[in-house]
Design a protein that fits this description.
The chain has helices at 10-27, 47-61, 75-78, 83-97, 110-118, 124-137, 141-161, 172-185, 221-237, 243-260, 265-281, 292-295; strands at 191-193, 196-198, 201-202, 215-217. The strands form two sheets. It has a two-stranded antiparallel sheet with strand order 1-4. Strands 2-3 form a two-stranded antiparallel ribbon. It folds into two domains: 48-96 and 168-295, no CATH class; 104-161, no CATH class. Helix 8 (172-185) crosses helix 9. It contains twelve helices and four strands. The chain is mostly helical.
């Protein structure tokens, strides 16, 4: 009687593995998500294709459109990306899409201007004179009342939320990294740094600011690597950047310096933040995650 494991001859083992592999593939309804998303019926309606595509379309439109992460990331991550956070993310992309140009008030009604202040596209200081001029130039009492209501609302908002004097100066990458760092460090002791949104303000605030975020620095290498993992994924599923762009960028800035130049993970982390900040602060449209490494004088080898 056999008491140990039964070992099949080499060729038979390969055939058996091939049989099980084919059985699994044939039994999968959706070849994209591999039936890991409940309710997915496969094809183009798979959330990994349909929702990511919709997010990418909203990002490309640069109009602050709605984003969704439902079924794209685990629930534990989803909890850190509330609707206000996703709205902030979309508005930051919209602001970046317009470059450094100031908000165009022409043709905007008071409700449009209020919405622009709320999402950080412009500021109360920039909006107030425009609204006052609209109120002065209007001969319609109803229109004047709408302008005054907008001014009253923005005045209250400015006091409660301590709105910045200028629109956000840091954008989508640092905001997304801050949210990821919050997730990784939330259950551990964290060192917090401010992610600036303009003169004298921050994304952190008192917790009441819309879509607030603070940069939580990793204390250990595994925390940094977990942040990199989620950062790469979230850039892809939100449509901000394709992983085919971000993976080489992270290899150039983080992994290769550690492997070939003996950078510590702390040095690689600081270098990453420098690169992300440079991309967001650059006024050149040609500077992005796909070009920044070589633009900075470093060549892939």
């Amino acid at each position: 009687m056999l008491t140990g494991p039964v070992m099949l001859p080499g060729p038979y083992s390969l055939l058996l593995l091939l049989f099980f592999a084919l059985t699994y593939v044939l039994g999968v309804t959706c070849p994209t998500c591999k039936d890991t998303i409940q309710g997915c019926h496969g094809g183009a309606d798979c959330p990994l294709l349909k929702t990511v595509g919709a997010n990418r379309a909203a990002i490309l439109a640069a109009a602050g459109g709605a984003l969704s992460l439902v079924a794209l990331v685990p629930e534990r991550i989803l909890a850190f990306f509330t609707r206000p956070s996703l709205e902030t993310l979309a508005s930051l992309v919209a602001r970046t899409g317009r470059g450094a140009a100031p908000y165009d008030f022409s043709g905007k009604d008071p409700s449009d201007i209020v919405a622009a202040v709320f999402d950080g596209t412009t500021s109360f200081v920039e909006a107030a004179p425009v609204l006052l001029k609209m109120q002065k130039d209007s001969s319609d009492e109803g229109a004047k009342a709408n302008v005054m209501a907008a001014l009253s609302l923005l005045t209250t908002y400015d006091k409660v939320h301590k709105a910045p004097n200028t629109a956000r100066t840091h954008g989508v990458y640092l905001f997304l990294w801050a949210k990821v760092s919050q997730y990784v460090m939330t259950s551990q002791g964290k060192v917090v740094a401010t992610v600036s949104t303009g003169s004298g303000s921050s994304l952190e605030g008192s917790g009441s600011a819309k879509g607030s975020a603070s940069l939580s620095h990793p204390k250990y290498d595994f925390q940094f690597f977990e942040m990199l993992n989620w950062f790469n994924l979230l850039l892809h599923v939100t449509g901000v950047n394709d992983t085919c762009v971000t993976a080489p960028f992270l290899d150039d800035v983080v992994y290769r310096p550690m492997r070939k130049q003996n950078y510590s993970w702390m040095m690689a982390y600081e270098l990453l933040i420098v690169y992300l900040t440079y991309v967001e602060c650059s006024e050149l449209s040609t500077i992005n995650l796909g070009t920044i490494y070589n633009t900075g004088g470093r060549q892939r080898s």
